[in-house]
Specification:
Blueprint: E1 4-7, H1 8-13, H2 15-24, E2 27-31, E3 34-39, H3 42-49, H4 55-59
Parallel strand pairs: 1-2
Antiparallel strand pairs: 2-3
Length: 84
Protein backbone atom coordinates (compact mmCIF):
# COMPACT_ATOMS: atom_id res chain seq x y z
CA UNK A 1 0.00 0.00 0.00
CA UNK A 2 1.50 3.27 -1.11
CA UNK A 3 0.98 6.44 0.92
CA UNK A 4 0.91 9.62 -1.17
CA UNK A 5 1.31 13.12 0.22
CA UNK A 6 -0.16 16.15 -1.54
CA UNK A 7 -0.41 19.77 -0.55
CA UNK A 8 -3.83 21.44 -0.52
CA UNK A 9 -2.76 23.40 -3.59
CA UNK A 10 -1.77 20.22 -5.48
CA UNK A 11 -5.12 18.66 -4.57
CA UNK A 12 -7.02 21.68 -5.90
CA UNK A 13 -5.04 21.73 -9.14
CA UNK A 14 -5.21 17.98 -9.90
CA UNK A 15 -8.06 16.20 -8.15
CA UNK A 16 -7.87 13.34 -10.65
CA UNK A 17 -4.32 12.56 -9.56
CA UNK A 18 -5.44 12.42 -5.91
CA UNK A 19 -8.32 10.09 -6.76
CA UNK A 20 -6.03 7.74 -8.71
CA UNK A 21 -3.52 7.75 -5.85
CA UNK A 22 -6.30 6.91 -3.37
CA UNK A 23 -6.94 3.69 -5.30
CA UNK A 24 -3.38 2.60 -4.39
CA UNK A 25 -3.48 3.74 -0.76
CA UNK A 26 -4.17 6.67 1.55
CA UNK A 27 -3.48 10.20 0.35
CA UNK A 28 -2.31 12.58 3.08
CA UNK A 29 -3.28 16.18 2.32
CA UNK A 30 -1.15 18.80 4.02
CA UNK A 31 -2.06 22.34 4.95
CA UNK A 32 0.91 24.65 5.55
CA UNK A 33 3.22 21.66 5.77
CA UNK A 34 1.22 19.74 8.37
CA UNK A 35 -1.01 16.71 7.72
CA UNK A 36 -4.62 17.92 7.76
CA UNK A 37 -6.76 15.32 5.93
CA UNK A 38 -6.64 11.81 4.51
CA UNK A 39 -8.33 10.77 1.28
CA UNK A 40 -9.28 7.08 1.04
CA UNK A 41 -11.06 4.94 -1.50
CA UNK A 42 -14.55 4.04 -0.35
CA UNK A 43 -13.55 0.37 -0.07
CA UNK A 44 -10.70 1.27 2.30
CA UNK A 45 -13.04 3.48 4.33
CA UNK A 46 -15.60 0.66 4.69
CA UNK A 47 -12.87 -1.75 5.75
CA UNK A 48 -11.62 0.66 8.42
CA UNK A 49 -15.04 1.76 9.66
CA UNK A 50 -16.40 -1.78 9.86
CA UNK A 51 -19.98 -2.69 10.58
CA UNK A 52 -21.40 -1.01 13.65
CA UNK A 53 -23.28 -3.26 16.06
CA UNK A 54 -25.30 -2.64 19.17
CA UNK A 55 -23.94 -4.01 22.43
CA UNK A 56 -26.73 -6.59 22.53
CA UNK A 57 -25.92 -7.78 18.98
CA UNK A 58 -22.20 -7.97 19.78
CA UNK A 59 -22.79 -10.02 22.94
CA UNK A 60 -25.12 -12.36 21.02
CA UNK A 61 -22.36 -13.29 18.55
CA UNK A 62 -21.41 -16.99 18.49
CA UNK A 63 -18.73 -17.85 21.01
CA UNK A 64 -19.42 -14.92 23.32
CA UNK A 65 -22.39 -16.35 25.21
CA UNK A 66 -20.15 -18.14 27.72
CA UNK A 67 -18.34 -15.01 28.87
CA UNK A 68 -19.18 -13.96 32.41
CA UNK A 69 -19.22 -10.21 32.92
CA UNK A 70 -19.15 -10.49 36.70
CA UNK A 71 -20.41 -6.96 37.30
CA UNK A 72 -22.11 -6.48 40.68
CA UNK A 73 -25.81 -5.77 40.59
CA UNK A 74 -26.60 -2.10 41.21
CA UNK A 75 -28.98 -1.22 44.01
CA UNK A 76 -30.90 1.99 43.63
CA UNK A 77 -32.70 3.21 46.73
CA UNK A 78 -35.21 6.03 46.83
CA UNK A 79 -34.52 8.53 49.56
CA UNK A 80 -37.14 11.09 50.49
CA UNK A 81 -35.54 14.36 51.56
CA UNK A 82 -36.57 15.96 54.85
CA UNK A 83 -38.00 19.36 53.85
CA UNK A 84 -39.16 20.43 57.32
Amino acid sequence: MAITTLTSRELNHDLGRAKRAAQRGPVVITDRGKPAHVLLSYADYQRLAGERRSLVAALAMPGLSGIELGAPRATIALEVPDLS
